[in-house]
Amino acid sequence: MKKWIIIKLTSLFLVLFLLVGMMIGMLNNGSSLETSSDYYGYSVPYNGAYEYVNDSYYTSSPDEPYIIGGGTIDSKSITDIYIDWINGNIDILETDDTAISINEDNGHNSDSYKLRYRIINNTLEIRYMEEYMPYSTSDSGKKLTINLPEKEKGKFKIKTNTVKSDILVRDVTIDELTAANKTGNLIVNNGKIYNLNYTADEGSFYTNCTSNSISVDVHRGAIDCTLDTSSKNVDLTLYDGNINVRLPKDIPGYLAILDFSQLHGSVGHFSEFENAAEENEYDYKDILRYGDESLYINAAMGFGDFRILKK
Fold it and tell me: Which of 20, 96, 138, 141 fits 88 for a cystine, CB–CB 3.0-4.6 Å?
């Protein structure tokens, strides 16, 4: 009997020992988890409330120093440009200079509110101001101007992360532009952008540039695309507003798939091209066909009109 009790006590002790060991191991694993590096963030007013903005893009090299204020940068090693901007217009232009230049229209005297930039590998990063600085609702914003060297046509990929900005891209040739905005417009006037992407909660998108691929996702606003015969894929999403697609009179053809599954009002469509065929094969989907269907247009709408016009 005593032997049986000793065996049971020994087994119980081993079980408790294992449980304690497992708990200690879990605690040690939890405490050894790596925390994220220091990051860049700020609070901005949006729709009557303050919203904290943080982009993990900047966590990769937190100890790399930034240069304060605008400047001129040798573009030989740069292929990517990343712009983080809170409030104010952004102009991206092309000049006959041999380097990239960045300038801001800044009403602040303090260095803390001036832009900063640095180069990490092949990427030029541009920030609105010093990290963790408060942003006031009375701040009228700053205008950023970026001049790209004409001799580097088609080389750069540009990504913008903005809160309240109108972005103007004029007469430039770049590989890719990806812009994300809370509130604001993107205008691409002339030039060539091989891949063009824009997302916004509220704003308008306008382009008359040459582009192989265009993707736009706007919650409320307007989309107006003027395309040429080089365009192949166009993907447009607009929850509330009108979409205009302007095509050359001699375009060989298009295939437009209209998705109305986000419907919350009335949606209509119209084409100025004669002999354009229309199909209604699916619920909440219409298909518009013309010519050889070489241009593919995918449009998703909730309220408004979709129009294909001749330019």
Answer: 141
